[in-house]
Amino acid sequence: MSKMFGFVVRLLILMSFICAGLGCYKCFIDPDDSVRLCWGHILSKYNIRNIDACFKTLDRIFNNNPDVTKAAKVGRGYDTILKEIMRAEIMPIVEEFHQNMNNDTVYEVRLQAAADTFITMATGLPRASGCFPPCGFQAHGTVYNCMTCQYDSCEFPLDCPLQEITVGENNRTQMWCHVPFVLPSDIQIVWRYAEIKTMLMDRFAEVTAGTDKLFSIPLARLEHSGTYQCEIFSQERSLVRIYYHLTVVPYEVVGHAELQDVFEKALLPAGQFLLLPSIPPFSLLRLPSPELLTVCLASLLLLLFLTLGALYWWPSKKMDCEPEQEREPHRNTYTLQTV
Ligand SMILES: *[C@@H]1O[C@H](CO)[C@@H](O)[C@H](O)[C@H]1NC(C)=O
Ligand SMILES: *[C@@H]1O[C@H](CO)[C@@H](O)[C@H](O)[C@H]1NC(C)=O
């Protein structure tokens, strides 16, 4: 009967330890080993054996210690090394303490030393790599988490920031559903469209579903303006949502903008370009720059010189022609003949 009672008590203690939440110690050490470790734990204040107090000490030193949890945030695959480090620290103490009485001060000192060694060694392990911000579920770049004894994903939101694109009416535009991280081979891509600028899921209507990463508009019309969303799935699970807000600029505005662009470039010193997203029409009335005025003035002067040159040349040519006519032998002969 007392054996049965002891078993139930032990079970209750184990349950309370397991249910109290997870931590780096609990991820790697069996509950049975913990019971063996805490078997001879003496509360020196009362001089009694108390296993529960020992579990509380373990929680404080390992499981609820943010330094331990932080040190254990290693990259994929390194949880096995974490386990080796933890067991190399704890198991010798388990063997040493089992069936032996030790007071709480001794436990405290030994466990704290074990935790400090764990922190030092775990901190030296490779951290998570291959997380590409700012968005998407990235299973490859993952971080170990002692609070769940599992790997977390890279902890980015599924929704990528909205990107603005502008296209002239009747021109061509393309949108790509590209992500910088590795995707599984079985992906499905859904393109959706919303007339307004939004990232709210219920505003979108599905346009295509398949494996096409490219959405192409060969001839943009004004009614193509709006938000385009591409969502990538793998096995029904959403991995990322990319957003493009497309603005189609009416043809006439495009014409004006291009004219203005040419004008502005002419006014700027070589190598400099103005970025003009929208140009108010009145800016067309701006006065030309001194450089342009100089060029105009020089052209005018050149024209003047040419005119003067022509005026000078014309009579002189006339004078040249007259003797030439006289000197011409055939003419002369003819004249003589006619006379
Ligand atoms: C705990 O045990 C150690 C070693 O046996 C001893 O030196 C120490 O005085 C004890 N501490 C208390 C508070 O009993
Ligand atoms: C049209 O698109 C081409 C390239 O796709 C670009 O070079 C050109 O500037 C665009 N024209 C307008 C009016 O947007």
From TrEMBL:
Signal peptide range: 1-23
Keywords: Membrane, Signal, Transmembrane, Transmembrane helix
Membrane-spanning intervals of the chain: 292-314
InterPro entries reported in the protein's UniProt record: Ig-like_dom, Ig-like_dom_sf, SPACA6
GO biological process terms held by the UniProt record: fusion of sperm to egg plasma membrane involved in single fertilization
Domain Ig-like: 157-240
Keyword Membrane part of the UniProt annotation: yes
PANTHER family: SPERM ACROSOME MEMBRANE-ASSOCIATED PROTEIN 6 (PTHR37366)
Identification of the protein by name: Ig-like domain-containing protein
